[in-house]
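How a chain folds remains the central question behind the approach discussed here. No coordinates are needed to read the tokens, only the vocabulary itself. For completeness, the protein is quoted in full, as a sequence line and a line of structure tokens:
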Amino acid sequence: MEGHLEETLAVSKLGATRAREWMHRVISLLDAAVGQLHDQEHAAQGTLLEAASLLRQEVHPPAAAEVPDARGRLLAWQARKVRDYIDSHITEPVLVADLCALVQRSEAHFSRSFRRTFGQSPHSFVVRRRVELAARYMLQTDASLSDIALRSGFTDQAHLCKHFRQAAGQTPAAWRRVHRLHDEENGTPPVERFATP
């Protein structure tokens, strides 16, 4: 009986190892495809980056998944208060010290709790919210990218382009063209692809 159990565990570990190796191989192929499209403006580039990102999260889950219970996280009211503050001050500099004051925690404790709650640092979260806001503006208005950058809290258009390309895998102008066309054809809001649970 004990030998059978050990054999079953060994087969299970082998299957997990093969699955992990398979996922790493798929990630490598996706990264290679993105690299081949690097010099071109192509709609598939963003999709490939998103697929690779999903596989990476499966292989290496974010730090927030390591804390299955609520210990070390912000309480629901604290998370809501912090998120609301960030959203209402998105066009201004958002300082960690100001966020700490909202929930009365030290910077170190707040930063750890924030990362466990939202899965990223306060700075990364603010940048992501700004990118999401810029994406909404790009779809809902005909404003110039420099105007959208300022209205979204970025210092200038180059700052927006840098962070937008990191998030979407495309320049804002290319993303806007593709998703406006996509929105017209399907009637679905493409801004959802930036949303996280």
Q: What stands out?
A: The CA atoms of residues 81 and 147 lie 28 Å apart.
